[in-house]
Design goal:
The complex is a heterodimer of chains A (224) and B (209).
Chain A: H1 16-32, E1 47-48, E2 58-63, E3 69-73, H2 76-89, H3 100-108, H4 116-124, H5 127-136, H6 148-167, H7 172-176, E4 183-188, H8 194-206, E5 211-218
Parallel strand pairs in A: 1-5, 2-4, 4-5
Antiparallel strand pairs in A: 2-3
Helix pairs in contact in A: 2-3, 2-6
Chain B: E1 3-5, H1 12-17, E2 23-25, H2 29-45, E3 52-57, H3 66-71, E4 77-82, E5 89-93, E6 104-105, H4 113-136, H5 142-153, E7 160-165, H6 171-183, E8 188-193, H7 196-207
The chains are: A alpha/beta (224), B alpha/beta (209).
Amino acid sequence: MPKIKMPRGTPSLDMTPMVDLGFQLVTFFILTAKFRPQEPVIVDTPYSQSQKEIREKNMLITIDTEGRVFFDLSGPEIRKNMILQAGDSAFPALKGKMSEQFIERFQTMGAFGVPTANLYEYVMADGPRRADMDEAAPGIPTDSLNNELWIWIQYGGTEFVRDAKANLNLTDKDLRDPKKGLNYTIKADGETPYGKIKNVIDTFRDLELYTFNLITGQERETTD
Amino acid sequence: MAEIVGNEGGGGRHQKKRAKKGHVHMDMTPMVDLAFLLITFFILATTLSKPSILEITYPKEKDIDSTEITKIIDSLAITVLLGEKREDLFYYYGKFRQDTTKLVLTDFSKDGLRKVFLDKNYKIYNAIKEAENKFKKREILEAEFDSSRKKIRDDEFAHFVILKTIDETPYRSLVDAMDEMQITNISKFAVQDMSETEHILLRMTKGSQ
């Protein structure tokens, strides 16, 4: 019987295609990745059968089960203008605290749910401390005597329009198109009592804003 | 990419001595490991499914004040009461009459609230479906479809839903009710506080079941 020749050493395998594919995938995911912004609270949204997807430009109001209200607006430039305008004239608690560092940190921050009295401390806090503050945050006041949410929405909306007109050359007509204009988006937990959400909706209606996007999860056709 | 031709292997002195033949094999394991680590990370970190939205236009304040409501033809109003729990879902037709109005229990299933809405609103629902089919077959343009849909929805005899809430109504109930409205093409609606008498009736009806 002829002897079978065993190959010496380790067999070498051409890994080129695998590595190529691997890097293709890496590149794809790096390019398409859109990171979920840091959320101060976890909210379990209700479901709907709506097929519409969330639009790009949002003013996001988050309301958790306890009814705490969080405010978020995207776009660092708009945020900067908003805090500059609002801090100067509308929020006495921020008088004299508007340092350059404060504004810079506010610009890149996500949603916040503290009254302006605590805002400076919150913005200047670092990651873990801020998470603690989120947990204890009372939410943005929405009661009629001290409706800070009203002011944030008002200034945020104004600055958005100003920015869109100046930098993107959009007209009033363009801005009425939800794809280009600002969308007022409400994200609330399914268990939140409606009384708390009504405060937010009434605030919007005071500002003559009547169209909202309610964030919902996609529902399977079979409902219980 | 996987192999590097080893011509320049060694310094100038060595090269003269003996030019290397064949290929230099590079150990690519760490690189591959890293690549797959990155893949895993990005797969886990990307959000592939965007959340969906329910676009709702609230009526302007003046539209829902009591004088306007009373003007609405009695037979066109469907009032939905959303109670403290998701199961506390009742409806009645027309105006509220203290002694004769009876609440009917329903639920959020396919044959529940949706059927209540459809039974009343089927004409408009069918008209919109028809327009939608035309649009799907490309017989009409999108703008045309949008305007005709708006026209159908705002019909004088379109049904009107009044959602009555209490402070404790879970948001989920409201969104579910609005979702049913969108499915059945009801666009005229209002959200109001439940009156005390309605609330009492709700509790009584619930207690008797």
